[in-house]
Write a structure and sequence with these properties.
By secondary structure, the chain is α/β, with parallel strands linked by helices. It is 25% helix and 26% strand. The strands form two sheets. A seven-stranded mixed beta sheet has the order 4-1-2-3-5-6-7. 42% of the residues are buried.
């Protein structure tokens, strides 16, 4: 019996990219791509979100928001919030029992304050970034709940998985092997990728704009590299993802802005 009952991708905002400036030797046009949130239903643990998408909470610190949108050309309406998306699925936000985050980015954490009750799960490294890293984007401070919420760090996964051939550490998100996590830092500090083995889906967050990076063997421009938290780590992670994609073609890769 499958542990993951269902998996849906919710579009919770949009971001515009000048694609031809971001990847070498392409004639891509400017594109408006979704901000993706993954909604999982787990047989035992109920409904789980990976990231939360955009919301008006991101605007509570106007100075930080103005600085943020200079780098991230995001747009979102009330109908784009994860709350509105859950309502379309005929779900009460109280149904969300756990939230996983890929990284400390406003588009990941933007709707956390709108969710009424949940447990936040993450790598220990990402929890430290969110709680103590004053160099991280200050907009996170306005999108992170002021009330104390339960937080828990992942344990190391001891079972077998294709991820172990490419990553030093693999984490067991829920303790039953149904969702695995790996460090894919580079685009952001302590960024985390999630693999759902039963669905053969790897959610690689902002490790690339979308799956064309792997399918068309694209290479980042100097401009794209300059936008990363650590360009060297970014290049290393993309090489690892290429290897995983080549060795396990059955795995479907999704990114934060996959169409």
């Amino acid at each position: 019996m499958k542990k993951i009952v269902s998996l849906k991708i919710l579009h919770c905002g949009y971001e515009e990219f000048k694609m031809s400036e971001l990847y070498m030797n392409t004639d891509f046009k400017t594109e408006k791509l979704p901000v993706n949130v993954i909604l999982l239903e787990h047989r035992k643990f109920g409904h789980i979100l990976i990231n939360t998408g955009c919301s008006k909470e991101m605007k509570k610190n106007p100075a930080a928001y103005a600085k943020y949108i200079m780098k991230h050309r995001i747009t979102f309406k009330k109908d784009d919030t994860v709350i509105a998306q859950l309502e379309k699925e005929h779900m009460d936000p109280l149904c969300i029992k756990k939230v996983l985050l890929t990284h400390a980015n406003a588009e990941c954490c933007g709707a956390l304050p709108l969710l009424p009750k949940y447990e936040l799960l993450s790598t220990a490294q990402l929890l430290c970034v969110m709680k103590f890293d004053n160099d991280s984007d200050n907009i996170i401070k306005s999108t992170f709940p002021k009330d104390n919420i339960p937080m828990k760090a992942f344990n190391v996964y001891k079972g077998e998985t294709p991820l172990k051939s490419c990553f030093k550490y693999v984490y067991d998100v829920l303790g039953d092997g149904s969702v695995l996590a790996v460090d894919i830092s580079g685009a952001a500090n302590a960024m985390t990728g999630y693999f759902i083995p039963e669905e053969n889906i790897f959610f690689a967050a902002d490790a690339a704009i979308d799956e064309r990076f792997l399918e068309m063997d694209l290479f980042p421009s100097e401009k794209l590299l300059s936008m990363q938290y650590d360009a060297d780590d970014y290049i290393s992670v993309t090489a690892t993802l290429r290897r995983l994609h080549r060795e396990y073609p059955e795995i479907r890769f999704l990114f934060s802005h996959s169409k």
